[in-house]
Amino acid sequence: MVKILEVFPQVAPDANLLKWTSGEVQPLYQNFDPACLTAHQVDMHIVLLDEDDIPQARCSLWWSHIPKLSEKGLVLGHYAALNDEAATKLLEYAKKIARLQSALVLVGPMDGNTWRSYRFVTESPPVRSFDNRCYPDYFLEPRNSKQYPQHFIQAGFSPLANYSSAINSTLGMEDERVKKALLRFDQQGIKFRTLNVAIFEQELKEIFQLSLESFVHNYLYTPITEDQFLSQYKKIQSLLQPDLVLLAHDDDNLLGYLFALPDIAQQMRGEAIDTIIIKTVAVKPGRKGKGLGSVLVSEVQRRAHQAGYKKAIHALMHDDNTSTNISRHYAETIRRYTLFEYKI
């Protein structure tokens, strides 16, 4: 007989979670930090236990602090399951909680908001430039069991949003449209420079302010505090190469930026690093920034090529946004991802 354990991390820590993650470590909680339940402001964490009280499936639910959805809803994240039967029972229980909260939709996987981990890898197509093989995981890419999307589909979830990553293997290729845009920006007094690591926090604060403006209309966008933003980027500060972080300025105003970093996953596999990951592109709304995103991408790729890199991954793009349009000029899809919803 299975049992359900409900944990309310904002009320009190749970001794079982501490035992499963630091003492008698359970497979379901391998590499899981229970402190994230409080840090991520989880409303309820659910654990499905077997007859021996061994965790078989888990997830967290949010309803107090979530992105704006099309209708009243809950967000489901921190998902893991050891088998199909446990997944079915866990997701049915999550639906029950959603009904008790008078929700009309349950969205997942998402660890509370889109600044954290969300969406499942759902397809890894053969890549022509990689000898028609599937491209391996890259640094900071979401990872999940191939069964997880099927768990959601079998539980009645359907796609809410689709995303993709693509790879460009022709970094040295010149684009005449970009050349014309660069000339236009130069005539407008817009200058490009790399990240100044000597004033890293100051640079991040300026980037944060632009991000608030640039991303406000993004799908499922949720604002975060400056401290939360700084904390996220300081975690990868040691991995950044200043020449791969490009900023566009008009006098003292930041108009756009691009964050890229080396694909450390190659090094972890014992390979030489020859690929960069284009993580974030942001442009200040308005006519003056028109075409700036394409120029930032082209310029970073050109600089990466000069530094000896051979490829660039355009990471985690929403299928309907500008980044995908920019990527289509250069790149080949290596991965597809899906965010699901369940209509209650």
Automatic annotation (TrEMBL):
<protein>
    <recommendedName>
        <fullName>N-acetyltransferase domain-containing protein</fullName>
    </recommendedName>
</protein>
<feature type="domain" description="N-acetyltransferase">
    <location>
        <begin position="190"/>
        <end position="344"/>
    </location>
</feature>
<dbReference type="InterPro" id="IPR016181">
    <property type="entry name" value="Acyl_CoA_acyltransferase"/>
</dbReference>
<dbReference type="InterPro" id="IPR039968">
    <property type="entry name" value="BcerS-like"/>
</dbReference>
<dbReference type="InterPro" id="IPR000182">
    <property type="entry name" value="GNAT_dom"/>
</dbReference>
<dbReference type="GO" id="GO:0016747">
    <property type="term" value="F:acyltransferase activity, transferring groups other than amino-acyl groups"/>
</dbReference>
<dbReference type="Pfam" id="PF00583">
    <property type="entry name" value="Acetyltransf_1"/>
</dbReference>
